[in-house]
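Can't paste images in this forum, so I'm doing it all in text. The chain is below; anyone willing to post the predicted structure tokens underneath?
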Amino acid sequence: MKKNLSWLCIVFVIVLCISFFVWRNRSIRVADIIDFDMITKVEIWLTDDCVTLTGNEDIKKFTDILDSMKLKKKPRPESDGFVFSIVIYHENNDKNHLMLLEDIIIDGQYYGCDRDYCDDMLKLYESF
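Text version of the structure:
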């Protein structure tokens, strides 16, 4: 009986560890964090210059870039820095702050991206 209970405990701990590992490494989408339907305005800052998106089509182009991202939560990196600083305004007067480099910081939470999205954001920025 004790032997069966010991094996059951070992199996339980292994299943728990595997579940935690799978849960920790799951992909997250930006749409899981930010409600795209509530966005009224987006400010994209590159150094001291800002582009403001207010039209539905413009915001859709921006959210398409965000929606294509596959993120994984990660610990805070040793160095901070960003290429783009983005402020997203919502209908209910809430804001989201994003910093985009190779990774993305959304409201102070760090996420690793599946690829570098700076070129996509730069094309959008330069089109305005």
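The CA atoms of residues 43 and 52 lie 5 Å apart. The mean pLDDT is 85.
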